[in-house]
Design goal:
The complex is a heterodimer.
Chain A (H helix, E strand, L loop, with lengths): L4 E3 L2 E4 L5 E6 L6 E7 L5 E8 L14 E5 L5 E5 L8 E8 L9 E2 L3 E5 L1
Parallel strand pairs in A: 2-10
Antiparallel strand pairs in A: 1-3, 3-7, 4-5, 4-8, 6-7, 8-9, 8-10
Chain B lengths: L3 E4 L2 E5 L4 E7 L3 E9 L5 E7 L2 E5 L2 E6 L4 E6 L8 E9 L7 E2 L3 E6 L1
Parallel strand pairs in B: 2-11
Antiparallel strand pairs in B: 1-3, 3-8, 4-5, 4-9, 6-7, 7-8, 9-10, 9-11
The chains are: A mainly beta, B mainly beta.
Amino acid sequence: GAGVSQSPSNKVTEKGKDVELRCDPISGHTALYWYRQRLGQGLEFLIYFQGNSAPDKSGLPSDRFSAERTGESVSTLTIQRTQQEDSAVYLCASSRGQASNQPQHFGDGTRLSIL
Amino acid sequence: KNEVEQSPQNLTAQEGEFITINCSYSVGISALHWLQQHPGGGIVSLFMLSSGKKKHGRLIATINIQEKHSSLHITASHPRDSAVYICAVGPQLGNTPLVFGKGTRLSVIA
């Protein structure tokens, strides 16, 4: 498709399990972002990839969170030993070129529920 | 104090009313973004602007760089405009992520 694709759309898992979330950005978009949105809250920045530069991990809330990106394509966000507080919608966005002066295109998100 | 402040937090309007949502920020920016998040959760980029004014259909966005303030206007509002409107700024400091406001929840009643 032409847009940002995220999978799965919903994920329910038990506390303590690891989860992996996937994002396929728009082809040609060098920048990719992961955000978290807790119920009723605003967007919270997690991590940002720009081309082959070292990612900006300043938003990751703990060392249980990590993300990878293969070149300028797919990214995976991994949460290890999930906690109930990790329940949220995880949103991915991509943009052409650098950072803040390009429109961001968002995926529909992965709704993660930790039991 | 948040770097990006939006007002009001919540807004209820009658169909047809003219709506204004405000955004103030405290950092130097390269661009300001207005986003729309529908009740189903999907987020759409409405505008990106660094000066002046942009218009798309019934939506108008303005920015005053000197006053560090932007407004989003909706003319002839409609129930389908009901959504959360989010202001975000791209700081001037090179390659940095957007800073988001907390959003304004708009409900337009028929």
